[in-house]
Amino acid sequence: MKPIIKQAFITAVTAVSCLYMAEWFKLPQPFWAVMSAIIVMQSDAGATISASWMRLVGTFAGALVGGIFLALLGNYVWSFGVAVGLVVLICAFLRLIESYRIAAVTVAVVMLTGQTTSPWMTATYRFLEVSFGIIIALLISALFDPSYFYSKFKK
Predict the structure, then answer these.
(1) b/e map of 75-102 (b: 16 or more CB within 10 Å)?
(2) Which residue among 3, 21, 43, 110 is least crowded, i.e. fewest CB within 10 A of its CB?
(3) Contact 105, 62 (CB under 8 A)
(4) How far is CA 58 from the centre of its chain?
């Protein structure tokens, strides 16, 4: 099987599996889980793990900063701008350069989407939905590339 055909198949299986499971668990916005799973899927398990880690850390930072700013300062253009700038600086300070973009996007999602629940619930749901998508991607990656995981845990 050509690598791109295999990747297309694995990505499609991941997206559909993630959507079914996210809906089964009644996640409020399952599309975030699906998008996260698709974004982290790579051609090999090692790259998927690396992408997953960076997305998870960035999402956590963005959800935390976005939730804090929304809860304490409200939904204003200036507070949004400060939150985005701060989360980028936090990622840079922690040497998480690969995570700053997703952290800033998560701040935007938390602060700019319609608020039907508390800021903390919005931030928590976003983190859980993204984490769920990442977990599904990692499980399917392990299913289709078990040799990578076997070699890491063989020792």
Answers:
(1) eeeeebeebbebbbebbeeeebeebbeb
(2) 3
(3) yes
(4) 8
Please choose, from the candidates 59, 41, 73, 64, the residue with its C-alpha nearest in 3D space to the C-alpha of residue 138: 41
pTM above 0.85, yes or no: no
Stretch 119-127: mean pLDDT: 87
Structure-model confidence comparison of residues 96 and 46, the more confident one: 96
Where does the chain have alpha helices with state H?
3-24, 30-40, 45-73, 77-93, 100-112, 119-144, 146-153
What is the DSSP track for 126-150?
Answer: HHHHHHHHHHHHHHHHHHH-HHHHH
Q: What angle do CA 116, 118, 119 make, to 5 degrees?
A: 105
- pLDDT tens figures, 133-151: 999 999 998 888 777 666 6
User: What residues contact residue 114 under an 8 Å CB cut-off, 6+ apart?
Assistant: none
The predicted structure's pLDDT at residue 119: 83
- Tokens representing residue 48 in the block: 């998927």
